[in-house]
């Protein structure tokens, strides 16, 4: 699940995007410093260093990314899981207490509304994971109940390991 060609391609693409955004952010910061110091570049048409629309768009995107990061951190703190939303609608959920306990859910057909189905799972999680999946997902069709059970089991195991009981 983690080391497949699609994920590798996505990781490379994401690394390139992150690098470019970092470079762009550094350039924008430098241009802002120059602008605040009163430096101007003379152009034939008197243009500013950076078009105002580009500057505002970059600042808006930065604020949105910061808000998104804060949201993800809040969800992780409150629910004990990290969420990753893929452009194709899939959601990867990873336990904070066992990073190998990862699950990928995807929306079912649009006619069924906002229901999700489990499509992949990692190698971690509770020992009785098959029973939890059978009960919460197959029988009850309750993904929140499943994730809560997994979180509790992973937390208990993590706590026992920290206390040296395992």
From TrEMBL:
Protein name: Spindle assembly checkpoint component MAD1
InterPro entries: Mad1
GO terms for cellular component: kinetochore; mitotic spindle; nuclear envelope
Gene Ontology terms describing biological process: attachment of mitotic spindle microtubules to kinetochore; cell division; mitotic spindle assembly checkpoint signaling
Membership in a protein family: Belongs to the MAD1 family.
Main location: nucleus
Localisation per UniProt entry: Nucleus
Key word ATP-binding present: no
Annotated keywords: Cell cycle, Cell division, Mitosis, Nucleus
